[in-house]
Amino acid sequence: MTDKVLVTRRVAPEALAKLRRFVEQVDVHEGNTALSEAELIERVGDATGLLVPGDVISAAVVAAAPRLRAVAAVSVGYNNLDIGAMNARGILATNTPDVLTDTTADLGWALMMATARRVTEAEHYLRAGRWREWQADLLLGQDVHHSTLGIIGMGRIGQAIARRARGFDMNVLYHNRSRLDEAVERSLAAEWVAKDELFRRADHVVVVVPYSPATRHLIGTAELALMKPTATLTNIARGGVVDEEALLAVLRDRRIAGAGLDVFEGEPDFRKGFLDLDNVVLLPHIGSASAATRFKMADLAVDNLIAALNLGPHAGRPAH
Ligand code: DGY
């Protein structure tokens, strides 16, 4: 039986061309929007592999694909895949770490700075024709340089953010399930602290911890209540890590200076209450969205899928 791969959404044509060199049948959903679960179930049929740029692969989708052997996520996060259902069938799942680390850290930095310095709010002010004259107290924000950064989740992206902090002379605190090696801590000049202490001391908190049932609403009313009134919170991980109702309340009451959100619990849907607030910067999940990085992610996901299906050069059987 030949292999068949379903590509659930548009990816770089070069990556598709590579896939086609190794896989006889490639079925591409040409649209740029997610297939529904019902559509996936209908289409997944005899696929042996899936290339998945963000779509939800539920247990029902897995069950509808009796020949499925591998699922390649075009993302570092894989909370969109039902890993339990895949494990039960011995289906391999892969992701795309490393290639997006710096791009995502850059976006985290941009979002933190935009939030602290009220960049989007200031632009709206100008575009709305409200700028009449220079004023000493116009749109005053919070400094980033020489402040204390608190990083929740110190994996690859967290560490890349810590490296950037050195250029801003920041004091770096982090909280992670496990502490980094002392040598790594030293090289990043980062100090491990308990979660509550981080929220109490940080001027800018950046959330980069992966989503799992254990990290759902890791940051809620209790943590937000510990933050300084001048502090900001930036989430580039997954929306579900932060209790958005609690965050909305804190922002409405101006109990922290602001928040920057690139991710939302029910995205692309999100709590519309955020739209009424000028102290939150809202982005449509663009953490890894540079042209070069999205290309590398698709390319790596294809390599992963080819290897997982055992079709690579070692298997010695390109289709054409
Ligand atoms: C990732 O790779 O997990 C990014 O958030 C894009 O989904």
TrEMBL record:
Keywords: Oxidoreductase. Residues 5-319 form the D-isomer specific 2-hydroxyacid dehydrogenase catalytic domain. GO terms for molecular function: glyoxylate reductase (NADPH) activity; hydroxypyruvate reductase [NAD(P)H] activity; NAD binding. It holds the Pfam family 2-Hacid_dh. It comes from the Bacteria. GO terms for cellular component: cytosol. Residues 110-287 form the D-isomer specific 2-hydroxyacid dehydrogenase NAD-binding domain. PROSITE patterns: D_2_HYDROXYACID_DH_1 (PS00065). PANTHER family: 2-HYDROXYACID DEHYDROGENASE-RELATED, GLYOXYLATE_HYDROXYPYRUVATE REDUCTASE B. Belongs to the D-isomer specific 2-hydroxyacid dehydrogenase family. This is Lactate dehydrogenase. It comes from Chitinasiproducens palmae.
